[in-house]
From TrEMBL, chain A:
GO terms for biological process: transmembrane transport. Keywords: Cell membrane, Membrane, Sugar transport, Transmembrane, Transmembrane helix, Transport. It holds the Pfam family BPD_transp_1. The keyword Nucleotide-binding does not apply. Residues 93-306 form the ABC transmembrane type-1 domain. This is Multiple sugar transport system permease protein.
UniProtKB/TrEMBL annotation, chain B:
One of its GO terms (cellular component) is plasma membrane. Keywords: Cell membrane, Membrane, Sugar transport, Transmembrane, Transmembrane helix, Transport. Belongs to the binding-protein-dependent transport system permease family. It is a multi-pass membrane protein. GO terms for biological process: transmembrane transport. Residues 110-302 form the ABC transmembrane type-1 domain. The lineage of its organism: Bacteria, Bacillati, Actinomycetota, Actinomycetes, Micrococcales. InterPro entries: MetI-like, MetI-like_sf. It is found in: Cell membrane. The chain crosses the membrane at residues 46-68, 114-135, 147-169, 181-200, 221-246, 281-302. The keyword Lipoprotein does not apply. This is Multiple sugar transport system permease protein.
Length: 318, 317
């Protein structure tokens, strides 16, 4: 922009030839800049085309074929999609995946409470923050292995701890009723530190003057929470809900490690686990692709809805 | 905790607007004091004591499974089954950690994970920061469209792409190599591009313009001016990315079949299946401990930067 305005301003004193030369030079400079800009962006753009756009297009076609991944692809139209609608395992896996998301509000409520506590002048806050955060950085595979052992009905840590308070714990991962809750508890435990950290930053960013003004008006602690804290941390809540739902829809690692067969009476199989199983164990690549696409579309729809709701609820104090 | 110190802080915080992050601001429970008009930031020691107690219980719950993991890894095979459980192994079996390196694929797993994580994050960071620089500071018609296009990639979950990607890589014979884990991600990370671009918006355009007028090449501007400016943002994103690649499980399990080519996460997951039948839980736990330790060390060293960058993640969205 700056270069063009400069040339226009000095036009009057320049001869035609000068102008022409200047324009040419600036055009050349622009071309050079465009070239470099394009070169700098090239890698991610190539990656986007080769590993996102192309596979997506291929997916759409593959989802309409009967195909084992090696042999020929037989075009069968929308048969995979009608099969999917009638497949009880698909619905069970979808239901399980949605069920796991119960952990999201539970985790967020605990995290916000922790963040409020940690925002006070409490001895050892840094220590607490670190301890609560360690599960977040630990590898999910290791954590899943550890918890699988911890959920062991006879010798596991969880039932040992429960027996201290006189509860005879179930054989968590072998029990259709308790397998999903077991996975939810583990997920909450693992994710707590991350959301606490985000909430803590948000809580500490709330201007203290708001609370002081509220106190002068005689507002109770609960009122201050609902009218000041909660609206002020709303962007973080939104961020966490969106990212947790996307991550939750892709739940796979802990399912595959802790319940390699999809759990007792298929009570833990998630959608991604079913897709993976169909594609790489049963070599039903066409069908698995159709399910994976449906998963992608569902995630997209849910995300768009959340953004809509968020816009409607947009709230700010000024 | 004196009243004077507190009110002084409250006042200075109100004036400064932002305030210092160290100071508590909120009483989550109604304060009982009737005549404490200025008690907005006054914290009751009793409430804090109760909260400290609750936080300590929570910390035990958070730490117990990990302590249990370390403790189990040092027990004898039989000690694992002792009731009531022993927290301090008797005797300590350090030999398990020798066995884990001698008898299993943990060492090659570490090597493979390092190859993938380091090559992806180091080269990917260069590509990402170059792209972020171009997107934020250089002129190119349609660059915002390109940015939106790249961002759209964040909306597509990996499971949706894994099957076609697998077929692509199997066609060129890359299955059972580390390449399918490296190539698609090494070309740049959208999340990193997004944050670096945001970060660069705080750098005045005039700086770049001035350097251009001085005749500096674009690579030179990037290297000597932009890179030092965005180094903190890069460092934070780099660490987060490294942890994500190191801990990845789904992509490696799809591509890697031979045990000696597998990354650490797949190795320990397979050990979990193999050695559980032999009741060798100490060995499994030792491998798990080993997979957690490197990241834990990185975290403890860079704790402040990591925490700041994560807090930033939330506020930028």
């Amino acid at each position: 922009m700056a270069t063009t305005t400069d040339t226009e301003q000095v036009t009057s004193t320049w001869t035609k030839a000068d102008q022409k030369a200047a324009r040419k030079r600036s055009a050349a400079l622009h071309r050079k800049e465009h070239g470099w800009a394009a070169a700098f962006m090239a890698a991610p753009v190539i990656g986007w085309v080769a590993f996102l756009l192309f596979p997506m297009g291929f997916s759409i076609y593959a989802s309409m074929t009967n195909w084992n991944g090696i042999g020929n692809m037989t075009f069968i139209g929308l048969d995979n999609y009608t099969r999917l609608v009638q497949d009880p395992y698909f619905w069970k896996a979808l239901w399980n995946t949605v069920f796991y998301m119960i952990g999201i509000p539970i985790g967020l409520a605990i995290s916000l409470a922790l963040a409020l506590a940690l925002s006070r002048k409490i001895r050892g806050r840094t220590f607490f923050r670190t301890v609560y955060y360690i599960p977040v950085i630990s590898s999910l595979a290791a954590i899943a292995i550890l918890w699988q052992w911890a959920y062991n009905g006879d010798f596991g840590l969880v039932n040992q701890a429960l027996s201290l308070v006189g509860i005879d714990g179930p054989n968590w991962l072998q029990d259709p009723t308790f397998a999903k809750p077991a996975l939810i508890i583990m997920a909450v435990w693992k994710g707590l530190g991350y959301s606490t950290l985000l909430y803590l930053a948000a809580v500490q960013a709330v201007p203290r003057s708001l609370y002081e003004a509220a106190s002068l008006d005689g507002a109770s602690g609960w009122k201050k929470f609902t009218k000041i804290t909660w609206p002020m941390v709303q962007p973080v809540t939104f961020f966490l809900v969106v990212t947790n739902i996307i991550a939750g829809s892709m739940i796979f690692t802990e399912i595959n490690i802790m319940t390699p067969t999809g759990g007792p009476s298929w009570s833990t199989a998630s959608l991604v686990w079913y897709v993976w199983n169909q594609a790489f164990r049963n070599l039903q690549m066409g069908y698995a692709t159709a399910m994976a696409l449906v998963l992608g579309i569902l995630v997209l729809i849910v995300t768009v809805i959340q953004f809509r709701i968020n816009r409607a609820n947009d709230f700010s104090i000024d | 905790m004196s009243l004077n110190a507190n009110t002084a802080r409250a006042a200075s915080g109100a004036i400064a607007g932002a305030g210092e992050p160290d100071h508590g601001r909120k009483a989550p429970r109604p304060t009982k004091g009737m005549f404490k008009k200025t008690g907005a930031t006054q914290e009751s020691p009793a409430v804090n004591a109760v909260l400290t107690f609750i936080l300590s219980i929570g910390a035990i719950v958070m730490a117990a499974p990990l302590v249990w993991m370390v403790s189990t890894s040092l027990k004898t095979k039989e000690g694992v089954y002792s009731l009531p459980p022993e927290w301090i192994p008797d005797p300590f079996v350090w030999d398990t950690y020798v066995r884990v390196f001698d008898d299993t694929y943990v060492l090659s797993g570490i090597k493979n994970s390092l190859i993938v994580a380091i090559s992806v994050t180091v080269i990917g960071t260069v590509f990402s920061s170059l792209a972020a620089f171009a997107l934020a500071k250089l002129r190119l018609p349609g660059k915002n469209a390109i940015f939106l296009m790249l961002l759209s990639g964040m909306m597509v979950p990996f499971p949706t792409l894994m099957i076609p990607q697998f077929v692509m890589f199997s066609k060129i014979g890359w299955v059972d190599t580390l390449l399918p884990l490296i190539v698609p991600v090494i070309l740049g990370n959208v999340i990193m591009i997004f944050f670096l671009r945001q970060y660069l918006h705080n750098v005045p355009d005039s700086l770049v313009e001035a350097a251009k007028i001085d005749g500096a090449s674009y690579l030179k501007i990037f290297w000597t001016m932009i890179l030092p400016l965005i180094r903190p943002a890069i460092a934070a994103q780099f660490i987060l990315w490294f942890m994500a690649v190191w801990n990845d499980y789904l992509a490696p399990i799809i591509y890697l079949n031979s045990p000696e080519k597998q990354t650490l996460q797949v190795v320990i997951a397979n050990m979990n299946v193999q050695y559980a039948t032999q009741r060798d839980y100490p060995l499994i736990m030792a491998a798990s401990v080993i997979s957690v330790i490197p990241i834990l060390i990185v975290f403890l060293i860079f704790q402040r930067q990591i925490i700041e960058s994560i807090a930033l993640t939330g506020s930028k969205t």
